Here is the input.
Amino acid sequence: MSMGFTKSHSISVGANIVYWIESNACVMAGTQQQLASPARVSIYEYYRGLNHKMDNMEINLPKTQYRSLFQMACQFRHLLMMKRAGRGHIPNGIKTTEPGELALQCIACPRPGENLPDGWESMPQSEQYINHPILAVDANFRLRSVKKSTEENDPGLHMGLVFFVDHDKYIQHMQKYASQKDICCLDCISSCSGFQTLAHAETKNTHGLRATGVGICVYARHEHVLPLVAGDLQVGERYCNMDYIAGSATQSFNDAKEIFYSYDIACQWKVNLHTHMKKIPKHTQIHDDMALDFGIPKLHCKAHKYACQCLYSMNLRHRLGCTCGKEIERTWDDMNPCVASMKEMGPGARHDTIDDQFGGHNWRKETRLDVYDWYDFRQAAAHTVFTESLPQDKNWVEEWTVMVEKWEANDSAPNPYFKEAKYASEAVVKHRLKERDRKILQAPGVV
Here is the structure.
């Protein structure tokens, strides 16, 4: 309230706003939901704003209605998801909702029977890559959760129906790997010299935390979070968590012949992936007849040793275009402003909120696909102009293209991007330094 209002005016306006809150509940919940996605306004901040609107000096505030508003907003989000998924047109629609059915799907991702032409399987081999999914896997350790409330007192309203995997099955599988270490603690990571990307991922102190972060998988071409690909991390970033999430992501592409995975540690992760897949629940396993390829995101690739860069850099992998692999980092950037409020939530409310935020992220990406395509076309046009500007009489383009195509067709062929560098050993360097010192001492005039 303004300082010019009297106490009676304050009570009158306060009562009117409380009545307005009760009579316009859906309007308020919708406003909060709209603000939560682009502006990252939590329910608590929204409620505080209403209090200040009613009494800016906070002298005559009515009894708090925050808990009621919080529950109402959660229910509103849940019902809005059901409405947008068309469940109201189906008898017993809420109870018969399939896992992942409430997730907002990308209109450009390849899905047979929906947006792929008839006979897409018989397309020329040179064009098949257009329909091959490119998935990016990563974890965010800022999305941690403290042990507040319980799943019995705070159950999620749509667990396993949107972006999070089936929680019960997921936790049941994770209990088998209670002693598995964080990925960055394993000895195999050190075999790729200089790799420090996951150094921050080790979570030694898990006291008081229900989850140390969240792992997800996104469609890298369009930055869309896929259905049933989010899972809480119990002790840092472990193979058991990321294998389960990566396998669950393939449920959206059961008809795909090949899938490309982008991951910070793809060079190590791929080694035992097929063995690990046999140990996870069958409904999340990658099909045996599905060809897999792997790459390291361009941002993290420089942290790997040179030979690893030449094999797995997404600048060099075949049929990827300009996909950089770090699209998932932009997804995390979209989520990070919300981490403070979600950290203190109960398990159900937190999962529902993350599902809602991922849905808002997907919607914003979908409405701006034309803008992203325009930038891609500009890059393609610039590359074409550069290629045409090269000297035509030297056959550089033709010779280089032949070498690259041979390597892409057969990995055992000479890698045109790899040039072995020879370095002097420590003993040789010491010998050279001693020789230099000896010559200096023997020089005329040296005392």
Q: What stands out?
A: Residues 1-20, 196-202 have pLDDT under 50 and may be disordered.
